[in-house]
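In the previous chapter we treated chains in isolation. Here, by contrast, the input contains two separate entities that must be folded as one system, with a combined length of 315 residues.
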Amino acid sequence: MRFGIVTFPGSNSDIDAYQTVVDGIGEDAVMLWHKGHDLAGADVLILPGGFAYGDYLRAGAIARFSPIMREVCAFADRGGRVLAICNGFQIACEAGLLPGALVRNSGLKFLGRPVRVRVESTDTAFTNAYAPGQVLRLPIAHGEGRFVADPHVIDALEAEGRVIMRYVDTAGEATPEGNPNGSMHNIAGIISAAGNVLGLMPHPERAADSLLGAPDGLPMFESLVARVAA
Amino acid sequence: MSRYRVSVHIVPRTGVLDPQGHAVADALHSLGFAQVRDVRVGRHVVVDADAETPEAAGSAVRAMCERLLANPVIEDFEIASIARP
């Protein structure tokens, strides 16, 4: 199975994603330069973390117009699986692949630390290798990670079970204490209506190695392999 | 064709929490400006472009705002001025 990892100028977690795919789950990965139009036969695309175009204007605002995004959006329209991590999530929202937007953390500070997130649904291509309600320890590294959307959009996401990950506190509850950035409803990750595009602010590709004491991100990649193989 | 300088204000939509604006309001209060009720912090973009008329310049920049310069999910924009540079 081939993962295509898009590299924008300023992406920095593309290599982490590559290593997680190749060393973590032993699958094939290719880097896709943002200026190209070739997805290299990838089965799954990753929009990685980083600071594409320096986050100029708004995070992801310029990257969404990169040449390869034409193919990425067409791929998603056809039901192709896209994993949009952190800056990738910001790009996906700007591109309209996912609803809502990511704005400045409510505490105004850049946060680079582990958080607890609860898996709200395992009935997705991205989370089927987790247990329902499993609480993961994943790192965040963002200044603009607060997920916002109009109330009717938030309500629809909740009603349709499209909130896939939620920030939780030490008791596993989605409280303000457990919310690092002020995201509405403690939303850490959402999925598209067709279930093929997942956006999340935490970094599973930076927590995919038990040697680092942070293995909780690996099952997200294992989920993708399991679903495509099925 | 003439050259125009179009100024755009882009601000967080009311209803979107603006912690930066809130922090600035708190700072103003601590400086003694008790009369401040609210502050919104946004962006000012100046577009220097060619157009046939000022109206055409404004309408082109409005399209630029809708396409790129502002994100309607979280921001409102207004054309503040259209001038000759």
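Chain A has five helices and eleven strands. The CA atoms of residues 181 and 202 of chain A lie 12 Å apart. Compare these points with the single-chain example from earlier in the chapter.
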